[in-house]
Amino acid sequence: MLPSHIIYPVPVARWEPNTKERLVRAALDLFTEQGYEATTVAEIAERAGGLSKMTFFRHFPDKREVLFAAGQEVHSQILATAIAAAPETATPLQVVALAVDALSATFTDDRREFAARLRTVVAAQRELQERAASKHLALAAAATEALQKRGVPELTASLAVELGIRAFDRAFDQWADPACRQSLADLTRRWLAELQAANAALG
Amino acid sequence: MLPSHIIYPVPVARWEPNTKERLVRAALDLFTEQGYEATTVAEIAERAGGLSKMTFFRHFPDKREVLFAAGQEVHSQILATAIAAAPETATPLQVVALAVDALSATFTDDRREFAARLRTVVAAQRELQERAASKHLALAAAATEALQKRGVPELTASLAVELGIRAFDRAFDQWADPACRQSLADLTRRWLAELQAANAALG
Lengths: 203, 203
What we know:
Two copies of one chain form a homodimer. Chain A is an all-alpha fold. The first copy, chain A, has two domains: 19-65, Homeodomain-like (Arc Repressor Mutant, subunit A), CATH 1.10.10; 67-202, Tetracycline Repressor, domain 2. Helices cover 68% and strands 0% of the residues of chain A. Chain A has helices at 19-34, 41-47, 53-59, 69-85, 92-105, 112-123, 126-149, 154-175, 184-202. The longest helix of chain A is centred in the C-terminal third of the chain and has 24 residues, at 126-149. Chain A is elongated and about 55 Å long. The N and C termini of chain A lie far apart (45 Å).
């Protein structure tokens, strides 16, 4: 099974195949089984295949970051790359649409079950919700900066990005329901269209 | 001197005059002098006039909340009340403008110096920045709910509120500069007009 939303496959050193991913999956398993508070870094490392705490801390600064660190970096990169690559004639909103398209395309449906569990764990813990909000801000900042590099004024860029990330978040929330049968990319496009219409109506 | 931004005078029991405010001011003093990490709850309580840790914990769940808890509650209330009281004919954006007007009017210029110190402390600490982001979300949720009670659809409400809170945040950041000579209310109105124009141009 592939990793999900917050988590994204990242290159790992040859001598430690998939350690990072194994830690993430072990953490989510333990958080689901016994709760976030009750789980220690040592337990996560052990569950990930008899690893040490030291190995854990080579990959993540603390227990909370195990669910966020890799995703934040990789998702920011996906957004920034797509924004830089968009056609020169695209409007800010069109550029953002392409960027969230690129991001949601990386979430294939075999990742839905993992995403659903992740959503449940995050929803149960204020500390994780705050980290999720801070990830939201970091993605928005990265995308806004990328748009500004195209010459879009900062205010316009930040508002266009806000619509895109809201569309992605709402779509993700629906998609991460095991009963959902739609693709994340389709849901994101639909939400972006709705948000755009509501926004235009604000005047 | 009066309390500031995040902090807002709240009713206190007669037998404990201003304990909450004294704790907040003592905390900000200590965070400024010796840093957030290095400051303990016991020190804050002591500095607030020889209070005990137990007294601190009667008012705040932890060290971090001392800068946020009271403000979040009172500011949410100010926004919700102003939204409910807005004229029936007002558009969602006009309602939001009245609400952020009511909020910024509570920050008189004698609170600027306190706000400036608060801004410096928060900017230096990731944990506090995350809490500030989470306060932003809580205010937005309260305001969105109040708008929905007026019959505004959720998507429209949340976008109108986002513009208002962004205007307030940007204005506050300028206002909390000791060199600033403008009122927070004026700055907020100006930012809201700019954000609205940028948003309308998105199409």
